[in-house]
Amino acid sequence: MPESSITLYGMNLSGHCHRVELLLRMLNLSFRYETVSPADRTSPRFLALNPLAQIPVLTDGNLVLADSNAILVYLALRYDSARTWYPGDPVIAARIQRWLSVAAGEIRFGPAMARVIRIFSRPGDLAAAQQIAARVLPFMDAHLADRSFLAHEAPTIADLACYSYVAHAPEGAIPLEPYSHIRAWLARIEALPGFTPMPRSELSS
Questions:
Q1: Could you tell me whether strands 6-10 and 32-35 are parallel, antiparallel, or unpaired per DSSP bridges?
Q2: Hey, where are the domains in the chain?
Q3: Per-residue pLDDT tens digits for 48-63
Q4: What is the pLDDT of residues 78-127, one digit of tens each?
Q5: In the CATH hierarchy, which fold is given to the domain comprising 3-79?
Q6: DSSP string spanning 53-115?
Q7: 3-state percent breakdown (helix, strand, coil) of the chain, nearest 5
Q8: 90-190: what fold?
């Protein structure tokens, strides 16, 4: 595969972009990272890639894909011949899909939203986002009490989809100290070959 075949358009403080970058690195794929500022997202060039003006966007040759979870599915099916990141077993695949939905739902509107409100001074209801986090994090912690990863005995795209915003929950004034199983899970993700951290702000709980 030519080195220029894959380009990831995003920004390094976005957890949505970080989850895609993690899988690219863990699959040992060569790619180019093009930083897209908030102003860039409304440029004709970027809107041609994603008319919704959202990051990340991934291009692979002539293919253009938006939506981080959709990109994870594509990369896992296209480049992971062993099907470790997205196993074909129907039960495991269904479990992965459930956690992709949690990543796009409760995590997005809980820890991720709280973080965005605080570190980017975006408008929003910080208390409401923290309340959502207060529901989803105990649920995740209990789920991880007797397993190492979210959907399978080995890491899958479900773990990468959920990792970044949970790991950075303290930036939304959401402490992780009460959740020992989540903290152990985060450490397992961070120990995987190819892991690269997302930059942290100075904000914490």
A1: parallel
A2: 3-79, 90-190
A3: 999 999 999 999 999 9
A4: 999 999 999 999 999 999 999 999 999 999 999 999 999 999 888 999 99
A5: Glutaredoxin (3.40.30)
A6: --S-EEEETTEEEESHHHHHHHHHHHH-TT--SS---HHHHHHHHHHHHHIIIIIIIIIIHHH
A7: 55, 10, 35
A8: Glutathione S-transferase Yfyf (Class Pi); Chain A, domain 2 (1.20.1050)
